[in-house]
Amino acid sequence: MRILIVEDDSDTRAFVAQGLGQAGHQVAVSEDGRDGLFQATGGGFDAIVVDRMLPGLDGLALVKALRAAGDVTPVLMLTAVGGIADRVEGLEGGADDYLVKPFAFSELAARLNALARRPAPRGDDTHLLRAGDIVLDLHRRTVEREGRRVTLQPREFALLAELMRNPRRVMTRTMLLERVWDFDFDPKTNIVETHLSRLRSKLNAGFDADAIETVRGAGYMIRGE
Questions:
Q1: Mean pLDDT, the chain, as a whole number?
Q2: Fold (CATH) for 2-116
């Protein structure tokens, strides 16, 4: 993989870069948030490692800028703060995973491999998920409703994909937290509801029918054909 490391601590940056290089990855580095964003927007990276606190532009702002530009490159955010609120803020801001310092290199490498992994096609169109008038392409990372392109942020895309993998099945809040956010606990925030609201707004723009049904007291469901 081509991996960008944006980390201002020289020891951590060198440690991660050396380990990833020895593992066979191509590594680019940056010690500044603004330069990191410049390199990231150049494209071509399979994953990005971003420190939460950076000079010039902090890691959270960097990730938000990437997502606002439509860049869906997987991001692993590093932080010296292990609080739940900090982790939730980072994930809501567009990061795909979080790792608290100090960390074992083996865990960082495993998390990067998991983020970069893509579903392997098992047939001609098994990378396509369909539910009603919605088509989601897992390979191209695109969504269309009645042929109209719907632009989603990475977490919104993952949320929709999970619903579409289970058409006509009620998905509880706990199930979505586990499968989309990899939480094995309830963060006691409205993270699911907030992302569902944004997802609905984008999917339903220009349409009369709501693409996602709320099953009161149970969860959420997307209907199939």
A1: 86
A2: Rossmann fold (3.40.50)
